[in-house]
Amino acid sequence: MIAPRPVVPVTSSSPAFQHTRAMSTLLRRFLYRESIPGPGREEHIMWPPLSMPQGLGNRMEKRSTLGHRLLSHTAGLLVLYTYALVILVNGGWKLGLSREEKERQGKLGANRASLWALDREPYRGVNHRFYTDKETDHRTHYCESGNTSRDSELVILLHGFPDSYYSYRHQLSSTSLKYAHLVVPDLPGFGGSDSLPNYSPAQVLSTVARFILAMKSKKNHDRCIIVGHDWGAAITCRLASECPKGTFSRAIIINGLHPTVFRNNFTHNLTSFTRTAKSTVFFHHPLHVLFSPSRAKRDLARLTKSWTKNITPILSQARKSHYIFPFRIPWMPLARRLPTMGDYYVLRQVSKMAKCHDEASYLANSLGPGVPECAGANGTGFGYGASVKARKGQELDDMISYYRDGLSFDPWEEKDKPEALRRTPGPHEQLIKEQDAATGQGLGEGRFKCPAIVIWGSKDTFYAPQLVHHGWGKMFCYDIEMGGSATVMLCRSGHWAHVESRGRMVVNGVLEWCVEEGENIKIRRSEEEGDKERRDDLEDHVEGVRELIRLVPIWYGGGESMVNCY
């Protein structure tokens, strides 16, 4: 018996239109393996289920990945040659060394000696130190200041790209933070720290985590405040969310992205626009535009609104992060050309954005120690590692690899973590993972295990706030002892909020507030008699993160700041 033909109820009476719509729907189901309803509420096409030919899905996925790489590399070359043209027009390339360039190189050498020579203090009360990882022999250079006793509060500060410990010079030399033990390491591959084989989460996060555990082992308590800016903020977010509860007492994020927040916002925007586009007449029945121009006009308005809301932030972020595309070019000698060409033209422009009035100091901060500095040693007999000495002419290669090796979004497996941080997820965490898998939102994996404070300069030229800043509240947690979390918006500050004169007053004030919060906890925990004057000052400290609503405007010098508590 011959099976009856499928029923195709339609509103239009044109046989040609019926045939065209049926064939287009069949083609879409063949390509997308899904049932797509027609524009009318009563319209549906009943076709037998179709399957993707064997191997076609893998071939389409490979072609999509290849297309993304080709687009990224093409954009990288375009950005690279655009900057080359700008430098050429501005006279950045000249035959031979001009007098100005010779003076600039002389200043660079002097500033390198000032920042990286191990036989002197870079700033008053700031000392060079080294930590050697017993498992990997990786040597981390760090600077410390403040109260280094075993009972003082430990504050770890992680810098961003293309910085070093120099990024936190105002915090290291601050007299208001003298009661805390400030530790600023150079991230692996930056400044005076050794290079790594690669810069995946298994290497970078594990190396930084072991360094932090080593610093904590020097204290009589388990409290540790971790601060991160830019790349340091991304690493801070991953450590504060993927390490067990109790590893950190509080996290402070300064103008950086949370990988999970960014990925969720990006996916949500892209999915929302795609869903809107698929529901329009232009996607389903292009010929229907001729028969129903009024609906086509409405759909065009919805599509335009969805584009403005969802795709414009993605394009804005691509424009702000255009420098990343050259970094991802497969050939490293070409990838490193952007920051180095034109006598470090790009880095000199970045120094102005970072509010550093001395270009030579900022270049010395980015390029790390030179050959004379690598030959010295500090008071304990330690010096810079062999990989630091071998970077001459290639100082930025390791920094660029942070953008190439998947540090932000690749998983950090339990087997790669330090043994002290390995754990088995509890029933509650397992339930969160199952919910995330069901909803596709992935919020559980990025939730902080400690209270956090996000300090955001709204004039940031590197991040689109719709993708990076929105959604932080979903990642916060509340601790019974440490209290809640907060976001602090600084309307007059930019990407380097902790360096700018007004912004650093807020950052230093928040750090001091967090240190006093930890001191209060120590007083409540201990019955020992301490410094009475210091104890009286701490007892006046109002508990609760909501106090920042009153304090931040005072630190910031008036209005134009906003604090949200969670």
TrEMBL record:
The AB hydrolase-1 domain, residue ranges: 155-502
Gene Ontology terms for molecular function: hydrolase activity
Stored Pfam families: Abhydrolase_6
Source organism (scientific name): Terfezia boudieri ATCC MYA-4762
Chain segments annotated as transmembrane: 70-93
InterPro entries per record: AB_hydrolase_1 (IPR000073), AB_hydrolase_fold (IPR029058), Epox_hydrolase-like (IPR000639)
Similarity comment text for this entry: Belongs to the AB hydrolase superfamily. Epoxide hydrolase family.
Lineage: superkingdom: Eukaryota
Keywords associated with the record: Hydrolase, Membrane, Transmembrane, Transmembrane helix
UniProt-recorded name of the protein: Alpha/beta-hydrolase
